Amino acid sequence: MHRNLFNWALSLLKGKDRFGNLRKFSVFKDLNSFELYLLHQIMNERAYVEGEILFENKFPLELIYFIDKGEVEVIGALQPNGSRLLKKNQFVGLIDMFQENVRSSSARVTQDSVFLAVSQTDLRKFIHDNPRIGIKILIRTCELISKFSFDLAAEIKGD
Amino acid sequence: MKLTTILFDIFLLAVIILAATFYKWIFSYLISAIVLSYILSPSVSWLERKRVPRWLSVVLIYLSTAGVIVWFAYRMLPDLISQGETLMNMINSDQAPANSMLSIPIFKSLSGSVLKLDQQIPMLNLVDNFDRLIESSKVFLSSIPKLLITNYQVVLSAVSFVATIPLISFFLLKDGNKLVKDFYKIIPNRYFELSIIIINKINETVGNFLRAMFFEIIAVTIMASIALSIIGVKNSILIGLCAGVANVIPYFGPFIGTAIAITTTLIDGNTSMLPILNIIFAMYIVQVIDNNIVYPVVVGTTINMHPLIVLLTVLAGGWYGGIIWMLISVPLVYLIYSVVKVLYVNLKKFQLI
Fold this sequence. Notes:
The complex is a heterodimer.
Chain A: H1 2-14, H2 33-40, E1 43-48, E2 53-55, E3 63-75, E4 83-86, E5 91-92, E6 106-119, H3 120-129, H4 131-158
Antiparallel strand pairs in A: 1-6, 2-6, 3-4, 3-5, 3-6
Chain B: H1 3-23, H2 27-49, H3 54-92, H4 97-101, H5 105-120, H6 126-150, H7 152-185, H8 189-230, H9 236-246, H10 253-267, H11 273-299, H12 307-349
């Protein structure tokens, strides 16, 4: 009873968790509601229809797309079997932002989709201005890269 | 393209033209408010990161800024009033025009030289011409209060200008992020990434430049005021402020500040070389500190324009709109050049041109 009352009072102080749905993306899993509110300020929601091009190979790389709804096909030499299908709650461009400024693949929307787009310039500035939040995002990104490397190694070994 | 799309685009264009015509009077208000919000924006964002609601952050920053302005006004107003009173007394005195103007030491010594020259070459009639010049100067100065009364509308619009800008800027600071997001919503998907890059770059370039310019003006004003106070120049804060503002003009700005300080000293009656040399040395030290410490730390990147282009821009600004335009023409041209460069580079990268 006391515990519930305390939690209720705490929730009043914290305010509504309006952007809690962003936690479905693994890199933002550890952020609290205020941190998500700050992050949401640099995000833009975009709707695409089936067949629309999200980005093209060799064009400048600025946006990281978080898939809120729908799916997208990424086509390029670096993708396994030449292409990869990304679905809801996945994202495209996050790892690339540490590597290059030009797209190494193209992406086409395969069904009506909604993306949360964030500029890598804004994200870098956000991490720089908010180091505590930045550490949480970067740790999750490192985990992601680590998993990606191990999966790749296992794939090569399997061949 | 469908006919309905074309018709809608034409309708949209007409609405934009109508809106631009309707709002053109407040364009200068908007630009000034944008400049103010660029300068204050990092402080507001910093407070917001400390969990202060954004609207309250803006209010707190406004209060702090107002506090600083009031403190400066309190320190400087008595000086300004006494100088104004002296000037008005001199203009409205019953003495002969030449005599009242000639109470200023520099005019006194100038008059002596003219008299001497006139005695040596009588046909030049220099004394009469000099008296006529002094008389016309007096007539112009006397007309200033009358000009203020007859142009009360201009005075009122200036007051409304100063009062409205912080209000517009308040909303820009509070909802600026939302406004930009709403703007992105009307951009077609094809140009979305390009528009993000361009707006980010313009934001960064313009924001950094305006903030750097603002902090440099403050730094040079403070340093010049202190340096001139140390060597005993009167009205050092005002002269320091002029030097700080003039400093926005590359290459020539520092000379303008020094010239103002020297002129003031001459008008004050110091005709010997030592105070003038002291001023030149003091302003040189200010420039050395500015160029080697303040500029690299605060500004980082310099206005990379050829001195000839700077000179021509300042002259063009002067012809176009007087002293104010002389001061803002160089930064304005530099900003426009930067924006065009960003547009060109990115349109090229996205293979649109």
